[in-house]
């Protein structure tokens, strides 16, 4: 079984939180009561969380289908590509330079693994499907890159396993943001960092589903956040500092200034964006950074 040893030392059973062992004969991981398959070096450690308030919404099945239908590795273009680039640059800026292990929750295109290619920093790309995780490992192969299929509400890692946990553009999709953040903080090491990005003060739009005839949020965005809503999610016992920054001025985006601004380095773009927000305060994105006790 070709399983990354740095990953294995962090893995626990998501159901009982006991350490798992390798069964090479059956290509499995197992604890005393549970077993999990391993496909192409990727542990499939999925157990379904109970979400009683949304009994009719199978979120794991939804995002499995989503990964099958949409290619997260397809290159974006135009304003979308520019906005995504700036979100990633801001996100990377929040990650401590001394971090040696990073968990990328909802890895999508595995841009974080790409960012750290060639650096001796362990990246674990986590997603709800084998589709994105498999593409992630094949696209960015490295002894410092591993992948896991798991539910973000039931992470298969021991407490304090990572110096930094990143959830970029994920929290707006989850059913229970408080439970999501609590579980992410559990696997952050003491004095480690949790970085979350999301749309800022988004006016969620809906369409009428042709199948169930119910209102359906566009882009599967279930929640809208500002700095106060995000701050209130964090358990004050778990965090010693909460910092946030909102950015990506709407006027600059809608005026199609990306045709020029895309050529600017991040530092210079950030100054222009900040000035625009001072004159016309209407921002598209927010990033929060929490340092754990």
Please give a quick description of this structure.
With 293 residues, the chain is an alpha/beta fold.
Please tell me about this protein's structure.
- The chain is an alpha/beta fold.
- The chain has one domain: Vaccinia Virus protein VP39 (Rossmann fold).
- It is built from ten helices and 13 strands.
- The protein has helices at 5-8, 59-69, 78-94, 111-115, 130-139, 177-186, 227-233, 250-254, 258-261, 266-279; strands at 21-23, 28-30, 35-39, 42-45, 101-105, 122-127, 145-150, 162-168, 188-199, 206-208, 215-217, 239-249, 283-292.
- An eleven-stranded mixed beta sheet has the order 1-2-3-4-7-6-5-8-9-13-12, with helices on both faces. The chain has a two-stranded antiparallel ribbon with strand order 10-11.
- A hairpin with a 4-residue loop joins β2 (28-30) and β3 (35-39).
- The chain is globular, with a radius of gyration of 19 Å.
- The two termini are 37 Å apart.
- The mean pLDDT is 91.
């Amino acid at each position: 079984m070709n399983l990354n040893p740095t990953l294995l030392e962090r893995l626990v059973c998501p159901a009982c939180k006991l350490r798992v062992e390798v069964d090479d004969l059956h290509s499995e991981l197992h604890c005393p009561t549970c077993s999990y398959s391993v496909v192409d070096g990727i542990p499939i450690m999925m157990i379904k969380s109970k979400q009683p308030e949304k009994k009719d919404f199978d979120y794991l099945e939804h995002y499995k289908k989503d990964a099958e239908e949409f290619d997260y590795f397809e290159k974006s273009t135009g304003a979308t590509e520019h906005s995504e680039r700036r979100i990633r640059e801001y996100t990377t800026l929040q990650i401590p330079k001394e971090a040696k292990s990073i968990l990328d929750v909802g890895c999508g295109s595995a841009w974080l693994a790409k960012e750290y290619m060639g650096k001796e920093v362990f990246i674990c790309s986590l997603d709800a499907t084998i589709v994105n995780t498999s593409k992630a490992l094949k696209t960015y192969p490295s002894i410092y890159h591993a992948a896991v299929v798991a539910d973000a509400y039931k992470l298969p890692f021991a407490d304090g396993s990572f110096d930094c946990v990143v959830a970029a553009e994920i929290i707006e999709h989850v059913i229970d943001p408080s439970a999501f953040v609590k579980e992410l903080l559990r696997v952050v090491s003491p004095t480690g960092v949790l970085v979350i990005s999301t749309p800022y003060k988004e006016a969620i739009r809906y369409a009428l589903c042709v199948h169930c005839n119910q209102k359906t949020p566009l882009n599967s965005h279930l929640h809208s956040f500002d700095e106060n809503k995000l701050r209130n999610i964090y358990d004050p016992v778990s965090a010693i500092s909460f910092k946030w920054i909102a950015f990506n001025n709407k006027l600059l985006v809608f005026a199609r200034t990306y045709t020029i601004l895309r050529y600017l380095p991040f530092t210079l773009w950030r100054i222009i964006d900040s000035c625009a927000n001072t004159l016309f305060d209407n921002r598209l994105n927010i990033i929060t950074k929490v340092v754990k006790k």
